[in-house]
Amino acid sequence: MTEATEARAALRAAIDARLDEAARRWLREGLQEDAAAVRALLAEVPRRTGRRHLIGAFAERAAARLPGVWGEVPVGAWTLADAARVLLLAESAERAEAPYDALFRVYDLGDTETRVAALRALNFVRRGDPARGLELVLDAGRTYLTELLRAAWCDNPFSAVNLSDHDHRKAVLKAFFCDVPVAGFLRLEERADAELAESLCEYIDERLAAGRSVPRALWSVAALHPQPGLVARLVGMLEHPDREERCVAARALARARDARAASFVRERLEREDDPEVRAALEAALEELA
Amino acid sequence: MRIFEPHIHMFSRTTDDYERMALAGIEGVLEPAFWLGQPRTSVGSFKDYFDTLLGWERFRARQFGIRHYCSMALNPKEANDERLNRDVVELVREYVHKEGVVAVGEIGFDDMTAREERVFAEQIQIAIDAELPILIHTPHRDKKKGTVRSLEVVRAAGIPEERVLVDHNNEETIPLVKETGCWAGFSIYPNTKMTPERMVEIFRRFGTERMLINSAADWGVSDPLLVPKTVLQMRKAGMDEEEIEKVVWRNPIAFFAQSGRIDFDDFEGNPGIDRTQLHEGNSVLRGQAP
Question: What residues make up the domain containing A135?
């Protein structure tokens, strides 16, 4: 388990490595300030640090992780300004009696960028009563601001670990409604359950009854706990004229692991020309064998 | 065609909208209290919002010949905020006794949490005590389960079903509501919710008894003319004028008339538009000559 001091040190090292001397000095001084002074510093962060990515090499971003108190934090999408805000907030909150409460205060007074940083900073302060930290996550989850929803639910080990089953299900469902990428939910495979799958299948019904499309990412989450009828729908999708839809169906069938689908997958594979779809079908057959 | 728009958030709309609505035949609106897109953090914001609905918004509507009524509530989403939910419910208890308040709503579920259910039940009780109908918002997500659970809460509270309007229905929920004595509302929306074409198909399957339609227009991508536009679609499908009028005029007014604070007589006679009128020193003309 990573200690909060260790997590902040790693974050600071990653930031410092990308800053020039003047910006490094500015950040070092900022880290000594109390909460009120830090709040006043936040608006100048992008001017001081610049807006470059925290991880320079494009190819390294997808896998980039930093140690956090509740698990590894994916940081590939963060800019230097994002990272510096998180570090400033975490450092000053750590000195408070109850760091989560301190983060809630700055969240409550903050603009959207500050709120995003406070949500991420939950992973860089010492552990407290998770219910206090969840106040930020749940408040953000009630908005429709995509930036806040992403910061609350995606790439955030604190919420992946601490959201209740009920709140977690509702978050995944709302993510589909608000175009928040569900792939960003950490530990989704482990946390998804039959009740979530049932809600997702009802959502599929609602979309189709209204003559609307179904978000592609939905199928593979629903397939983790297949409800009656889901596998039949996926088998039907294997004949979809859009190759993307066929890929999605094959991957979801691999997850659903219903052996009855095997003959349909095999039959489609015989007629399938697209190499990517073929690969997905072959992988599915291995799972279904 | 005379139209009463039974669910619209004029707070978020412009005077151009009022003008177009009046031209399209809308003579009255019901504005339910709801959330404003950005969560509020104190009870004072709610008080000012409620006062706006009762004061400035009603005044603005009158400048375009439209009668404005409203319903009071703490909406389901903000019911989750423990910093303010208890105080706002107390405020609602006070505000349901104001002139022009013809229902309690929008109440119901957003994420189906325990807090939402508590606030929902408390506000049904406020409606029972004040002898007002209620307007139930069914959730966007998990809509079918949310509708089932809402109907259970209604039954447990013991409010007569004919005083309950379940809103934002779709193909999946309408069979559930039709089994009860509740009224059913449909929100016609450009991208989400219902389309005029789907709505006509629902009238064909389920009839027009205790059914009404609204635009639910607000600060989002929405269209305050979707009720008149659906009227066109209903005509195109061959529905009788009388039945169309029932859906867009008689049903909504009859439902809210159960409050004893709105009646068909309210709409008789010339509305007498005079935009030089002042509301607390302000007019909609903002210094321009009409």
Answer: 4-191
Euclidean distance between CA atoms A99 and A91, whole angstroms: 9
For residue B67, give the nearest of B288, B261, B282, B286 by alpha carbon.
Answer: B261
Could you tell me the end-to-end alpha-carbon distance of chain A, in angstroms, rounded to an integer? 38
Question: How many CB atoms within 10 Å of residue B160?
Answer: 12
Is A285 part of a structural domain of the chain? yes
In a domain, residue A201? The reply is no
Q: Where are the beta strands (DSSP E) in chain B?
A: 3-5, 26-32, 67-72, 101-108, 134-137, 164-167, 183-187, 211-214
Q: Which of A191, A220, A239 is the last residue of a domain?
A: A191
> B202-220 pLDDT, tens per residue?
999 999 999 999 999 999 9
Q: Establish if A226 belongs to a structural domain.
A: yes
Which ipTM was obtained for this model?
Answer: 0.73
Question: Which residue of B77, B140, B172 is in closest CB contact with A209?
Answer: B172
Of the candidates A144, A203, A209, the beta carbon closest to that of B171 is on A209
Rounded to two decimals, the pTM is: 0.83
Q: How many domains does chain A have?
A: 2
Domains detected in chain B:
3-264 (3.20.20.140)
Contact B172 A202 (CB under 8 A): yes
- Same domain, residue pair A224 and A173: no
Q: Which residues of B touch A138 (CB under 8 A)?
A: 80
- Can you name the residues that pair with A185 across neighbouring β-strands? A154
Q: Which residues partner with B211 through β-bridges?
A: B184
Contact list, A144 vs chain B (CB under 8 Å):
37
Q: Are A44 and A84 in contact (CB under 8 A)?
A: no
- Assess if residue A224 is contained within a domain: yes
